[in-house]
C-alpha cells in the first residue's frame, strides 16, 4: 500500500474523478499554479473535461479507465463522494490518494456519517435507521412529527428525501425503502443553515473558510451570505465543531460541514468530503479559494490564508435561470458570473453561480433583489 505523503510540485498531473463543476473549479485553480489535469467522467466535454489536459471518458466504476487515470496522474483526487468501493480500494493500494478512502466510506452512508459525528461529541438531530415499512412507521412515532426520511446512500440536493408532516405522508416515504435503508430524522426548526469548509494538508496545516450562511429553496442551495448574520459566539462554535470533526476524522483534503443553528446551538446536518457549493464565494472574496486550498492540501503545499476580503453573496444559477441571466448580463456590474459549460439547462440543474461583492451584505442583497433574476424565490428568501 502506498501511504507515505509526498509533496506534489507544480508541473505534475492531478487526476480528478468526476468532471462536474467542482472538478472544473479545482482544475482552474490547479492550472493557475502550473499543474496539469486529467479527468475521468462518463461524458465527453464535461465541465472539467473542457479545461483538462487529458479526458478519460468512462464510468467511475470502469476499472480499466481508473487504471488509465492512475497511469497518467501523479496524485488522485475526487469531486464527488459516490465512488465505487472496489475502485477506491484499488486506488488506495495502487496510486497516490492522499485523502485516503476512509472519509469517503464514512460520508457515502448517512448512517455511518451520523454515528461518527455523534462519536466525536457533536450534536445532530435525533434519528433512527430503518429498513422496513414497519420500522419506518415505528421510527416516525418515536421521533415525532414532523420528521424527514432520507435514503442513507446516494441522495443529494433533496433527492431521496421526504418530509413527513402527518401520518398519511409516511406512505410517500415507502418508495425510498425500495433502494436501501433510510434514516428518519427529527425536523429541525432552524434559525439559519450554516457551513464551514475546512482544508487540511498531510503536513498538518489546517484552514477554515469564514462561516457561511446558506439559504436553500426546495432543498437546493440558493444563496450563500458571508459574513453570516450571526453572533460572534455562534461563529466560534461553528468553527469549533468543524475543527472537532476534521481532527477526529483525520482529514486530508477538504471537508464541508453543513450545520443548523437552533437557539444558539449548532447541530451538524451533513458532511461533504470535498469543496462545496457553499464555498464558491471564496474564489472572489477570500485570500485563497476553497479550490486553491484543496489543491494545496492534496499536494502537501503550505495552505494559504482564508481571510475574507469583502462582504459577499453567492447566488446559484439553475437551469431555469440561465436565459434570464444572459438576457440581463448588462446589469451584472458587481456580479462575477461563473457558468460551468453544461449544455443542457435542465430545471433545477446547477448551471453556474454569480458572486456579488459590495460594501455590506445588506447592500448586496438589495442589488440582487433589484435584478429580474430569481423572482420566484424572492418571497421565500425574505423570511
Ligand atoms: P441534506 O441533503 O441532508 O443536506 O438536506 C437538504 C436540505 O434539506 C437541508 O439543507 C435543509 O434545508 C433540509 N433538511 C434536511 N434535513 C433536515 C432536518 N432534519 N430538519 C430540517 N430541515 C432539513
TrEMBL record:
<feature type="binding site">
    <location>
        <position position="216"/>
    </location>
    <ligand>
        <name>ATP</name>
    </ligand>
</feature>
<keyword id="KW-0067">ATP-binding</keyword>
<dbReference type="InterPro" id="IPR013815">
    <property type="entry name" value="ATP_grasp_subdomain_1"/>
</dbReference>
<comment type="function">
    <text>Catalyzes the ATP-dependent conversion of 5-aminoimidazole ribonucleotide (AIR) and HCO(3)(-) to N5-carboxyaminoimidazole ribonucleotide (N5-CAIR).</text>
</comment>
<comment type="function">
    <text>Catalyzes the ATP-dependent conversion of 5-aminoimidazole ribonucleotide (AIR) and HCO(3)- to N5-carboxyaminoimidazole ribonucleotide (N5-CAIR).</text>
</comment>
<dbReference type="InterPro" id="IPR011054">
    <property type="entry name" value="Rudment_hybrid_motif"/>
</dbReference>
<comment type="pathway">
    <text>Purine metabolism; IMP biosynthesis via de novo pathway; 5-amino-1-(5-phospho-D-ribosyl)imidazole-4-carboxylate from 5-amino-1-(5-phospho-D-ribosyl)imidazole (N5-CAIR route): step 1/2.</text>
</comment>
<dbReference type="Pfam" id="PF17769">
    <property type="entry name" value="PurK_C"/>
</dbReference>
<dbReference type="InterPro" id="IPR005875">
    <property type="entry name" value="PurK"/>
</dbReference>
<feature type="binding site">
    <location>
        <position position="150"/>
    </location>
    <ligand>
        <name>ATP</name>
    </ligand>
</feature>
<feature type="binding site">
    <location>
        <position position="193"/>
    </location>
    <ligand>
        <name>ATP</name>
    </ligand>
</feature>
<comment type="similarity">
    <text>Belongs to the PurK/PurT family.</text>
</comment>
<dbReference type="Pfam" id="PF02222">
    <property type="entry name" value="ATP-grasp"/>
</dbReference>
<feature type="binding site">
    <location>
        <begin position="155"/>
        <end position="161"/>
    </location>
    <ligand>
        <name>ATP</name>
    </ligand>
</feature>
<feature type="binding site">
    <location>
        <position position="110"/>
    </location>
    <ligand>
        <name>ATP</name>
    </ligand>
</feature>
<keyword id="KW-0658">Purine biosynthesis</keyword>
<keyword id="KW-0436">Ligase</keyword>
<feature type="binding site">
    <location>
        <begin position="185"/>
        <end position="188"/>
    </location>
    <ligand>
        <name>ATP</name>
    </ligand>
</feature>
<dbReference type="InterPro" id="IPR011761">
    <property type="entry name" value="ATP-grasp"/>
</dbReference>
<protein>
    <recommendedName>
        <fullName>N5-carboxyaminoimidazole ribonucleotide synthase</fullName>
        <ecNumber>6.3.4.18</ecNumber>
    </recommendedName>
</protein>
<dbReference type="InterPro" id="IPR054350">
    <property type="entry name" value="PurT/PurK_preATP-grasp"/>
</dbReference>
<feature type="binding site">
    <location>
        <begin position="269"/>
        <end position="270"/>
    </location>
    <ligand>
        <name>ATP</name>
    </ligand>
</feature>
<dbReference type="Pfam" id="PF22660">
    <property type="entry name" value="RS_preATP-grasp-like"/>
</dbReference>
<dbReference type="InterPro" id="IPR016185">
    <property type="entry name" value="PreATP-grasp_dom_sf"/>
</dbReference>
<dbReference type="InterPro" id="IPR003135">
    <property type="entry name" value="ATP-grasp_carboxylate-amine"/>
</dbReference>
<dbReference type="InterPro" id="IPR040686">
    <property type="entry name" value="PurK_C"/>
</dbReference>
<comment type="subunit">
    <text>Homodimer.</text>
</comment>
<feature type="domain" description="ATP-grasp">
    <location>
        <begin position="114"/>
        <end position="299"/>
    </location>
</feature>
<dbReference type="GO" id="GO:0034028">
    <property type="term" value="F:5-(carboxyamino)imidazole ribonucleotide synthase activity"/>
</dbReference>
<keyword id="KW-0547">Nucleotide-binding</keyword>
Amino acid at each position: 500500500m502506498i501511504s507515505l505523503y509526498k509533496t506534489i510540485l507544480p508541473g505534475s498531473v492531478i487526476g480528478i474523478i468526476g468532471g462536474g463543476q467542482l472538478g472544473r473549479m479545482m482544475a482552474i485553480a490547479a492550472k493557475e499554479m502550473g499543474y496539469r489535469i486529467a479527468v475521468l467522467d462518463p461524458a465527453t466535454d464535461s465541465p472539467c473535461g473542457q479545461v483538462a489536459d487529458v479526458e478519460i471518458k468512462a464510468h467511475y466504476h470502469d476499472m480499466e479507465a481508473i487504471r488509465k487515470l492512475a497511469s497518467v496522474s501523479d496524485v488522485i483526487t475526487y469531486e464527488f463522494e459516490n465512488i465505487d468501493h472496489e475502485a477506491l480500494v484499488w486506488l488506495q493500494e495502487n496510486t497516490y490518494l492522499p485523502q485516503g478512502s476512509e472519509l469517503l466510506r464514512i460520508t457515502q452512508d448517512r448512517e455511518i456519517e451520523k454515528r461518527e459525528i455523534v462519536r466525536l461529541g457533536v450534536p445532530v438531530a435525533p434519528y433512527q435507521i430503518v429498513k422496513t415499512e414497519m420500522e419506518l412507521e415505528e421510527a416516525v412515532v418515536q421521533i415525532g412529527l414532523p420528521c424527514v426520511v432520507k435514503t442513507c446512500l446516494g441522495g443529494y440536493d433533496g433527492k431521496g428525501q421526504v418530509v413527513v408532516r402527518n401520518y398519511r405522508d409516511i406512505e410517500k416515504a415507502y418508495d425510498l425503502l425500495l433502494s436501501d435503508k433510510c434514516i428518519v430524522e427529527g425536523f429541525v426548526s432552524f434559525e439559519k443553515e450554516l457551513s464551514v469548509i475546512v482544508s487540511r494538508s498531510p503536513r498538518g496545516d489546517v484552514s477554515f473558510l469564514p462561516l457561511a450562511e446558506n439559504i436553500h429553496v426546495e432543498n437546493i442551495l440558493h444563496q450563500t451570505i458571508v459574513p453570516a448574520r450571526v453572533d460572534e459566539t455562534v461563529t466560534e462554535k461553528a468553527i469549533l465543531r468543524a475543527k472537532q470533526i476534521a481532527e477526529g476524522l483525520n482529514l486530508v483534503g477538504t471537508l464541508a460541514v453543513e450545520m443548523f443553528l437552533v437557539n444558539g446551538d449548532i447541530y451538524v446536518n451533513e458532511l461533504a468530503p470535498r469543496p462545496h457549493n457553499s464555498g464558491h464565494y471564496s474564489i472572489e472574496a477570500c485570500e485563497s479559494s476553497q479550490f486553491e486550498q484543496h489543491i494545496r492540501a492534496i499536494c502537501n503545499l503550505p495552505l494559504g490564508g482564508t481571510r475574507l476580503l469583502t462582504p459577499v453573496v453567492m447566488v446559484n444559477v439553475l437551469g431555469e435561470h440561465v436565459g434570464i441571466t444572459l438576457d440581463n448580463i448588462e446589469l451584472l456590474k458587481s456580479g462575477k458570473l461563473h457558468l460551468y459549460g453544461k449544455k443542457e439547462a435542465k430545471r433545477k440543474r446547477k448551471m453556474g453561480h454569480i458572486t456579488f461583492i459590495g460594501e455590506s451584505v445588506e447592500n448586496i442583497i438589495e442589488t440582487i433583489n433589484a435584478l429580474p433574476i430569481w423572482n420566484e424565490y424572492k418571497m421565500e428568501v425574505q423570511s
